[in-house]
UniProtKB/TrEMBL annotation:
It comes from the Bacteria. Pfam families: DUF218. InterPro entries: Cell_Envelope_Assoc (IPR051599), DUF218 (IPR003848), Rossmann-like_a/b/a_fold (IPR014729). Residues 68-208 form the DUF218 domain. PANTHER family: ENVELOPE BIOGENESIS FACTOR ELYC, INNER MEMBRANE PROTEIN, PROBABLE PERMEASE. This is YdcF family protein. Keywords: Membrane, Transmembrane, Transmembrane helix. The chain crosses the membrane at residues 39-59. Signal peptide: none annotated. Gene3D superfamilies: HUPs.
């Protein structure tokens, strides 16, 4: 998602080189319009702050013990091997499943470009190697987005009052849980897999943009 920063940088650079005459022509003289623009900017900043606060608060989410289900959200697979991001999610899921022997896991993710198998298939193999019984694993391998992960996985959950944990990278938990609760999993909670380093702020900003897109698209109603 490097394009986010390229577009932002290009916009700032373009603004710096606007000819003075053009700037004057664009200058807002109407006081009411100035007030509206200022109010809009304040509301946008407040919205950005609230979303990022939600992302920040959810970073250390550990969920609850003895959940009925956990859903592991897919991430990239390199050939047949999990990417580092997916590896962390799977390690987190395996640790939870070993502590909670009655919890059923839904591994969710289709097959994308450069992937020799589906993300769900890769996750199932990993969990089996970790000693998780096959009868506890449900594969959902049609989804391509977080919204589809949640909706398609939710179709495997018949109990309306089921407790569900969403396993994903820490920066992704806020949007994933809001999506789950908006799509009928009203007792959903987050189980955060660790992710850190210099790229964390980048992914936090990306979550704001994707959350906004999902909100506008009606996926978070």
């Amino acid at each position: 998602m490097l394009w986010i920063w390229i577009v932002a940088g290009a916009g700032l650079a373009a603004a710096a080189f606007i000819p003075p005459g053009l700037k004057q022509r664009w200058k807002i003289r109407n006081r009411l319009m100035k007030t509206a623009v200022s109010a809009g900017a304040i509301l946008f900043c407040l919205y950005f702050f609230l979303v990022e606060l939600g992302v920040l608060i959810c970073l250390p989410s550990q969920g609850k013990e003895n959940l009925d289900y956990i859903i592991v959200l897919g991430a990239a697979v390199y050939g047949t091997e999990p990417s580092p991001v997916l590896q962390k999610r799977l390690e987190t899921a395996a640790a939870y499943l070993k502590r909670n022997q009655d919890t059923v896991v839904i591994v969710s993710g289709g097959q994308g470009p450069g992937e020799d198998i589906s993300e769900a298939g890769c996750m199932e193999t990993f969990l089996l190697e970790e000693g998780i019984c096959k009868s506890r694993i449900i594969r959902e391998e049609k989804s391509e987005t977080t919204v589809e992960n949640i909706r398609f996985s939710g179709s495997h959950i018949q109990e309306q009052e089921a407790s569900v944990g969403i396993v994903s990278s820490n920066f992704h938990i806020f949007r994933a849980v809001v999506t789950a609760r908006s799509n009928g999993l009203k007792h959903a909670c987050g189980i955060a897999a660790p992710f850190g380093g210099l790229l964390l702020p980048h992914y936090a900003v990306r979550e704001f943009l994707t959350f906004t897109f999902d909100l506008i698209s009606g996926n978070l109603i």
